[in-house]
């Protein structure tokens, strides 16, 4: 089973998502962030479930979908997982990789 590590940047994205949604609906904000976190936890058992992201930086970057969000993650050589960021589908993810 792989260990899941949330990078500082990924945690910042989660906080920003929460803050944005909470302006209108704090309950929904909690549900969305918890859903994103729970979805990412499935990677501990199924690390290759996401699709490969065409990254020039690393072939092991993948994307896991959850609702209107993309969870970008890196499968490390020891099969551990680094969550790199959480992006709304409206964002141009290529700007970040």
How would you portray this structure in words?
The N and C termini lie far apart (27 Å). Helices cover 32% and strands 27% of the residues. The chain has one domain: RelE-like (YaeB-like fold), CATH 3.30.2310. 24% of the residues are buried. The model has no long low-confidence stretch (mean pLDDT 90). Strands 1-5-4-3-2 form a five-stranded mixed β-sheet. A hairpin with an 8-residue loop joins strand 2 (51-52) and strand 3. With 97 residues, it is α+β, with helices and mostly antiparallel strands.
Strands across the major sheet, in which order? 1-5-4-3-2
Rg from alpha-carbon coordinates: 13 Å
How would you sum up the major sheet?
Answer: 5 strands, mixed
Helix content: 25-40%
Proper CATH architecture: 2-Layer Sandwich
Summarize the structure.
This protein has helices at residues 8-22, 26-41, and strands spanning 4-6, 51-52, 61-66, 69-75, 81-88.
Itemize the secondary structure elements and their pairings:
Layout: E1 4-6, H1 8-22, H2 26-41, E2 51-52, E3 61-66, E4 69-75, E5 81-88
Parallel strand pairs: 1-5
Antiparallel strand pairs: 2-3, 3-4, 4-5
Helix pairs in contact: 1-2
List keywords for this structure.
single chain; 97 residues; five-stranded mixed β-sheet; YaeB-like fold; 5 strands; alpha+beta; 2 helices
